[in-house]
Amino acid sequence: MPLDLIDSPDLDAGFREGLWTLNFGPQHPATHTTLRLVLQLDGEMVIGAEPDIGFLHSGFEKLAEVLDYNQYVTIVDRMNYISPMANEIAWHHAVEGLLGIELTPRCKYIRTIFAELMRIHDHLLCTGTCVLDLGGATAFMYAFNEREKIYEICERASGQRFHTGYTRVGGLLYDVTDDWIKMVRDFCKTFPKAYKDFAGLVMKNRIFVERTKGVGVLTKEDAIAGSASGPVARASGVERDLRRDEPYLAYNDLDFDVCCAQGGDCYARFQVRMMEMLESLKIIEQAVENLPSGPVFISGTGKEGLPDKTEVYRSIEGLIHHFENIMPNRQMPSPKESYYGATESPNGELGYYIVSDGDFKAYRARTRPPSLLHFSLFSRMIRGCMLSDVAAVLGSINIIAAELDR
Amino acid sequence: MTAATNMKEVLESKLGGVSLVWSAFRDQNRVAVPASHIAAALQTLRDAGMDQLVDITAVDMLEYPGATDRFEVVYLLLNTTSGERLTVKTHVNEPELKLPSACPVWFGADWLEREVYDMFGIVFEGHPNFKRLLLPDAFESFPLRKDYPVKGRGERHNFPIITRAES
Amino acid sequence: MATEINKQLGDNVFLTTIDAAASWARANSLWPMPFATACCGIELMSTAASKHDLSRFGSEVMRFTPRQCDLMIVAGRVVMKMIPVLQRIWLQMPEPKWCISMGACACSGGVFDTYAVVQGIDRFLPVDIYIPGCPPRPEQLIKAIMDLQDKIKKTGTYDAREFKLRILPDGPKRFDEDELVRIRERNGFKLDEPKYDPIH
Description:
Chain B has 167 residues and is α/β, with parallel strands linked by helices. Chain B has helices at residues 2-15, 38-47, 109-120; strands spanning 21-25, 28-32, 52-60, 71-78, 85-92, 98-100, 123-125.
């Protein structure tokens, strides 16, 4: 850390000569989309930071009360928009937990592959923009180039690059084809080289290391008491990963390590994300090799899962099955209970607390947003840092404004 | 279930004769605590090992079949070392929509409580910086209540128009 | 076209060439001000990245200060808290300036017909090009920029006089369904609450 020109800034200072307020407004290149920080500065050192959020509050939770479980998945996509399918998987994990539905093995594996692809997707963007904010535009371009490959994989499965709306209650929108499997395998082959290029530019880069080591430290106690989760918590030493502790989907059968670091500073968070990308690649490789065959939709009493589209268009039973699942007054009833289902999204513990009143629509669906809690820790992390560290810390905690504000 | 019974014993011993309603649904344990004892309950649970607050949220039971209270405030707790989860529910009714703040227990409750106030209007006393979080300060209603329509009451279009000639 | 203005103003061959030259220069060096709020912002970043390179079209520099830009790309949903910010940034941009409304949410509110989201920024700002899609593909954004370049070349004037002619707001008329509901409520006329019906 550079020389301290002032000795221990008094955090509860009253009026002090030289304190000034800087508005790090909602429109700024380093604020990952719309959030606002009011910084109190003493020269270059940040004394206090008060975040002002809500510039992207769109009423997601109100919409949950109007749309049913299969329709809301399109909205849920738009929350953590840099890893859209992770939200869908989390949402349907919660819904299927509430409804007591057990998925087919093939569906579990495909969802696992997508969850891990989305983890790589998210971490590439987070690390890429973190480096971009600190000045390294080339690494950003490399990261985005890799993401394009993942966009193509999503597009092959569901038709959309982004905001796929791919999962359904009890299954997926379409089954995957053989060329999709081939695309995933090709991705697994090309990703290590791209990772090496990207990491080589950044990890031992002196400027990057000096700008992120020791900056924005979050202690382990603060991480636990402040409800941090995911890479932010793991970089502070909290060894908690929902994929290992509360396994869901196919994580029980797959072999992977949980990445933790000790420092709790920006560099540690960055390292955790880079390591997690390699772990995700390992998981994808295992899952793709062991992809079970079979149906993607559950077959039960008929009201749980949607039928295959070919059946819908070619047989009357398929059509009736589809009708029974889609029409609002004929769908399966849900238990009148509340349920909290959480998954390990790339950003942390993304959970949905769903209260149901018997309908196929949530009475209340609350998103537990990891970004909100991490951003509330920001004012603790930034104290004592310089103004130029604000961009580094903001980039490392991966705040996504839509998840923050919902 | 031993972990849950552990919490049950701890809470019942600490809170004495307060009527707690325990239930379970698909391996998730819930307890309903009356609003007057919620602060003590949360502090007890934190001391017994529930060191992380996962979420605070509220549900408006206005249109829920068979509900007796208007608002249900839900605290989701987690024990990071053992992985145990517990859901603590409490109920508040109008006109006194007040609860003691959980910030002294876990400081992560800070923004979560502000958001509950913003969306539902439930006031948390003892909060260090209590004001709206997501909506503009001038906003008057509490949107997630059931009596507030999805499309709002015209707040979203109350802004000046800039034409091409003026800009 | 510049020749029509010529007929109104009288013969001035020199003006035509300057107009055309100015419009050509402006069209091919549009510096975007990315007002990226949400998911469309990520597609905007993808368009600026190496696969669909936006800098081929002159948008080499994505300046984040409005004083240096001439094209504002509003990518993403705009909520009530953000609209004053958006308007202030629009007013800070110097003439000539254009606005692209990218994505369904900026054009009309998109999927979010809720209390918080503005149903289309053209209610409050003048918009030149609309891009539908949720989110629109990078190729759509590139096509929109090409369309804007055509528009500038065809209708641009040296002193940006075409902007002074547009005095009416672009967007939907002020009186709309929400207003009707409010009027009814105020008068105590009870109608069935217009429920958001996802099917019909």
